[in-house]
Design brief:
The protein is mainly α. It is built from seven helices and no strands.
């Protein structure tokens, strides 16, 4: 018979692993923010390997579904993913430059559309939308004017910030989950009769 205390310990241990993983991600994010060039190349290599592995998996799936109407489409998509993965892995610097240019253009177009849209629509969030548009436009111009040198740090900075915030999110979930489990376990433990507590304790000692 597993008591609430035993189940609570298991859940608490699981949330503890989340906290540990989140801490590792936060550390990796901070290191990436310090060494943005290394983080950029690392993110490009990871991106290339993801494309390559995804393409190989897609090719195997297409081969398994040969004879269907989606066979050739799956083969073409898998081949494109494999080719793109090989190019990214062989030329991470060039890929970073191309993606940085693409990101700058996205910031520019997004900023312009937000500025124009906020002026035309004049909704209740006009001030906030204007601020977002101005920030996106400024960020796009800064990245574009410093290109291709900006490719050494822009993607690495985004990648590191993503790791940092994901890690903080996991830490928050882990700590909050452990607190909730602790509170629920205490409530359940108070409602368990003394005889059941003794049986559960003896079973834990035997394990």
């Amino acid at each position: 018979m597993n008591g609430p205390t035993t189940e609570g310990r298991k859940l608490s241990r699981s949330f503890g692993w989340l906290v540990l993983l989140g801490t590792l991600l936060v550390i990796a994010g901070i290191i990436g923010l310090i060494y943005t060039g290394v983080a950029t190349l690392t993110s490009m290599l990871l991106f290339g390997w993801l494309l390559l592995v995804g393409g190989l998996v897609g090719l195997l799936h297409a081969i398994e579904s040969r004879g269907t109407s989606y066979f050739w489409l799956g083969v073409v998509v898998a081949a494109l993913n494999i080719a793109a993965g090989v190019v990214v892995i062989k030329h991470p610097e060039g890929t970073a430059e191309a993606l940085t240019m693409f990101a700058a253009l996205l910031f520019l177009t997004g900023g312009v559309f937000r500025l124009v849209g906020s002026v035309v629509v004049r909704g209740p969030q006009m001030g906030w939308t204007l601020l977002q548009g101005a920030f996106g436009l400024l960020l796009g111009l800064l990245v574009l004017f410093d290109w291709p040198h900006s490719s050494l740090y822009v993607l690495g900075c985004f990648f590191s910030l993503a790791l940092l915030f994901d890690g903080l999110g996991l830490i928050a979930i882990g700590i909050g989950g452990r607190r909730i489990v602790s509170m629920v376990s205490e409530r359940l433990d108070e409602s368990v009769p003394a005889e059941d507590k003794a049986i559960t304790a003896s079973e834990d000692e035997q394990k």
